[in-house]
Amino acid sequence: MVAHARADHPDEACGIIAGPEGTGAPERHVPMTNAARSTTFYEFDSEEWKREYDRMWDNDEEVVVAYHSHTHTEAYPSRSDAKIASELGLPGAHYVLVTTKDPETAEVRSFRIADGVITEEPIEVTGAPEAVQSYKFAHTPDSTVYDCH
Amino acid sequence: MSIEVRIPTILRPQTKGEKLVTGEGETIGELFTDLDSRYTGLRARVVTDEGALHRFVNVYINDEDVRFIGGLEAKLADGDSVTILPAVAGGM
Q1: Residue A131 pLDDT more than 60?
Q2: Entry's NCBIfam families (chain B) (predicted)?
Q3: What's the total number of domains in chain A?
């Protein structure tokens, strides 16, 4: 997600991580085209989104993570992010925000968005936490929880 | 004439949890009116009071986004598959 956000900077990047329905497991990363090609707005390309949705439908998958980047602001849902997601969004998805405003350090945060309410949630990095922020640790843990509180 | 309609998660409360429903109509507009007779409130989530598609909903006939083929006036044929999707979007 961070690599995608960096690659598309200064435009906003967007995409999903799909996983088997009902498991909540994010397994298949799908970078999407930002049809808005904008530094301040994103929208899934309509045709591409339909293709990916068909694939998920056939595989009994769902959107586990819906992510997008902010290129000049915090990794926090904007007013329009929350409004659009509440009106007609992906109620089961973790909305992940990546900010690329700092060229050295990317910030990644995760939220639930429903009925206009934004709730931040912790992120647990498993598998290769050293790839993320090893400098923080004297050891290499198997998993790292980035708590939001 | 029977049209299959794929319902996104966020609209399944309107279809009693069904992800796939069937409806009838010569056009997308008629289809939503027909669906609303059984799934009350579904139409209002997709169509505005002014009678246009909501800005952040995508409706497809087979693989075609109906915005490019007449919107609510887009014609349906027997056996078509309709998909409703949130237009995942946002901005700073």
Answers
A1: no
A2: moaD_arch
A3: 1
Measure the CA–CA gap between A149 and A127, rounded to whole angstroms: 23
Question: Which pLDDT band, with edges at 50, 70 and 90, does B91 fall under?
Answer: confident
10 Å CB burial of residue B40 (0-12, 13-18, 19+) is exposed
Which B residues 13-32 touch A at CB under 8 Å? none
Q: B13 φ, ψ to 5°?
A: -60, -30
Neighboring chain A residues of B57 at a CB cutoff of 8 Å: 88
Structure tokens at A2: 């961070």
Domain assignment present for residue A32? The answer is yes
- The whole-angstrom distance between A109's CA and the closest CA on chain B is 15
Break chain B into its structural domains and give their ranges: 3-86
Taking 70 as the threshold, does the pLDDT of residue A142 lie above it? no
Does a structural domain hold residue A46? yes
pLDDT over 90, % of chain A: 77
Domain B3-86 in this protein, CATH class = alpha beta
Kindly report the CA angle at A82 between A76 and A87, in degrees rounded to 5? Answer: 165
